[in-house]
Amino acid sequence: MTYExxxxxxxxxxxxxxNQKLPLDDALELxxxxxxxxxxxxxxxxxxxxxVKILDSSEASE
Length: 62
Fold this sequence. Notes:
- The protein is mostly helical.
- The protein has one domain (3-60): Orthogonal Bundle (Helix Hairpins), CATH 1.10.287.
- It is built from two helices and no strands.
- It has helices at 3-19, 24-60.
- The longest helix is centred in the last third of the chain and has 37 residues, at 24-60.
- The chain is rod-shaped and about 60 Å long.
């Protein structure tokens, strides 16, 4: 799943939790999925940030 797909799924989860009266078990499962996706997105962003720093520092030294 791409970063963008994860964000889209997170948006769907938030909408479902905000707008629907879900049974507790379903809401909990969606919440768990959202937490997992959020952590994955955060990790991907941190990795991208590190790559940009590396590229910036290599260009600066040229």
